[in-house]
Amino acid sequence: MRMAANSNTPPGATEAHLPERSRAINLARGAERILLRRHAINRPLLREVLKAADIVMTALVAWLALHVSGFSLLNSSVAEIAPFALVPLCVSWGLRHADAYRYSYTRPVTEQMLRAALGAGLPLAGLVALTAMLYSGTHTRWVMGAAYLAFAFIMVLHAHVIVLFKILTRNGALSENVVLVGATPNAQRLLERNNDTRELNVVGVFDDRLSRAPDSMSGVPVLGQLDDLMNWDRLPDIDRIIVTVTSGARERVRHLVDRLRVLPQRVVLLLDLDGFDPETESLAEIARSPAAYVSGQPNDVRRAAAKRVFDVVFATLLLALFSPLLLLTALAIKLDSPGPVFFRQRRHGFNNQIIRVWKFRSMKHNPAAEVRMGAQTVHNDPRVTRVGHIIRMTSLDELPQLFNVLSGEMSLVGPRPHAIGMTAEDAEVQGLVSDYAHRHRVKPGITGWAQINGSRGPVHTREEVRERVRLDMEYVNRASVWFDLFIMLATAPCLLGDWRRQR
């Protein structure tokens, strides 16, 4: 990268003439100019929460009107209850078709409220008209009251949500961390439009032809070449990589995509913005458009929310169920050998972020092993303690990872998190398989598809690494709550069936 203020750099020197150390320093300094948001609010999740709130609120209004009118869910007929039950369904259907849930920073508040009013009001008016044709006047008046009250609640809720959305967008709380690959005119247009909407938190720009790139674009620093991005220590904090190149540069696109496929982040290919209409389209939606993906899959917000609920509920139940066993194991470890009860090792998590994984200590105390793995376990490993041998065979040493699940760092089911520096045949495992990083596109798990299919414990050969990655990728492509439940049910029999396998 070119250095703007370096007295040792001759005038006209290009990036290729700069030493690697100077480029690394400039990369670190440039990155400090942009704020990395580690806990951005997920826009699709916010939209799903609003949809659920609309249904729940209008259902409560309908139930209240039904109760006050003298009808009962248990004693009234289906025909008497039906008009009240249709209130939340009509509202939900109408708001969806009026496009009232697609919030945009550039969309006027009056237009957003008009969409909400039409989406909720017209179906409710139709419901009242239909009720008047089929039911008595008294019944119609109660349904009309429920419809009026539901409409009022919807308008108040959506008005507050619009204000909240504007504030959160302005503060950047709804922005994902993204980097652009390609310092092109297309990238310049995206950055200019993003300065108005603030829908994306663009951390920086990388370009494989750095000598032609400026030092910054619309206030966003050009941080380096593609190799700098691949080796960037802040890469785990990036949510998405957007390739912004001209549509005619096919060979360049192919080269960039082939290089970026190995990263766990989702990569979006954004060729042209010429047809972008800021009045009707959202940069955030375009940037995560399923049609634009070149690696990974679009986020499924409902599945992610269901999986998180699944993890929290079952992890809490398992902690309560195994709490006596956890206490006895901790006592046995303390009495067996000197050192702490727990062992917290640095491992690769979601998006290759570094997490601290909780385990019961099963080896002789070695603080250095918590930072980086020295060597994988072997048969009759002298480092393993007497109690450690038992808890490793039964996988009891993994139970404290339920705390990682509750904290959101891990899931109950997913690819096992590998330790930093893990090797096979004297080579780090991430360099042995081209698709290795793709296993980090989901949260790591306590158990997984690979574990119940025999790939459990250390991997000492290239073939074992490839098989582990193949099974992990099969899980990533098939992941669902029901698949997770099946893996959990199959875990105990599989562990009991190969309890002699060295871990």
What does this structure look like?
This protein is α/β, with parallel strands linked by helices. Helices cover 48% and strands 11% of the residues. It has helices at 20-31, 43-68, 78-97, 109-134, 137-171, 185-197, 226-230, 250-260, 283-287, 301-336, 386-393, 402-407, 449-452, 462-478, 481-497, and strands at residues 176-181, 200-206, 216-217, 220-224, 240-244, 266-270, 293-295, 342-348, 354-360, 411-413, 423-424, 427-428, 445-447. The protein has a seven-stranded mixed sheet with strand order 3-4-2-1-5-6-7. A two-stranded antiparallel sheet has the order 8-9. α3 (78-97) runs antiparallel to α4. Residues 1-25, 29-33, 276-281 and 288-293 have low confidence and may be disordered.
Quick description:
48% of the residues lie in helices and 11% in strands. The protein has helices spanning 20-31, 43-68, 78-97, 109-134, 137-171, 185-197, 226-230, 250-260, 283-287, 301-336, 386-393, 402-407, 449-452, 462-478, 481-497; strands at residues 176-181, 200-206, 216-217, 220-224, 240-244, 266-270, 293-295, 342-348, 354-360, 411-413, 423-424, 427-428, 445-447.
